[in-house]
Amino acid sequence: MRIAKMVATTTLALAMAGCAGKYPLGMDEAEWLALPAEEQLEARKQQAALDQARALQRTEEARTRADEKRRQAASRVLAQAQAVPGSRIQCLLTGEVRAGGQWRQASPVWMDVVVGWPEEVAMTSRDGRLTQLAYAGFDGVTMQVCPTELDFEWRADACAEVTGTPQAYRSGLSRAVQVEGLWRGQAQCELPLEHH
């Protein structure tokens, strides 16, 4: 009975704390040493069962995230294929990425963004060693690249923006832009050829 009460209490504590200590079931050294050998063995078995359940839960969560990513990627491809004129923009970013505390030449970044489908963009140093993530989107008038998803949602000052009319984008629009503390250089944006 004593072990059942202890298991219930420590399971709750573990759920709240999110991690196990040195001894099974979140026990401290005094609690562990006070247990008879049979109860220590039982506690180790229970901890192993909890660890296995957590591992299964993490695996299932990872599988769910991967499935959702695949669904979103398929939906994005469909949205690009079905985009109406003016709702899709293609941009080439060239310049420098801030990584490792300094500005470094960046590999060119190609983006193909559809209204309503913001996407994660990898900005990588030319040597391929350092990568920073940014978030890009297009609202039909303004292409925006932001250092974080939150900046993107709030259209923060930290974001780089290229704004133009459909006519300007058809001709190709080039702007010097900077994503605060992340990237600086040129953005060349245009509507895809099929929309010209």
Describe this structure in words.
It is built from five helices and nine strands, in the order αααββββββαβαββ. It is of the alpha+beta class. The protein has two domains: 78 residues; 108 residues, no CATH class. The protein is elongated, with a radius of gyration of 26 Å. About 7% of the residues have low confidence.
Low-confidence stretches: 7-20
Backbone CA Rg: 26 Å
Tell me, rounded to a whole number, the average pLDDT. 85
- What structural class should be given to the helix and strand makeup? alpha+beta
Whole-Å distance between the termini?
A: 77 Å
**Helical element count?**
5
Strand content: 25-35%
Oligomer: single chain
How many domains? Answer: 2
Largest sheet properties? 5 strands, antiparallel
Percent helix among the residues? 40-55%
In total, the number of strands is 9
Overall outline: elongated
Give a short synopsis of this structure.
With 196 residues, the chain is α+β, with helices and mostly antiparallel strands. Helices cover 40% and strands 31% of the residues.
Search tags:
196 residues; 2 domains; 5 helices; four-stranded antiparallel β-sheet; alpha+beta; five-stranded antiparallel β-sheet
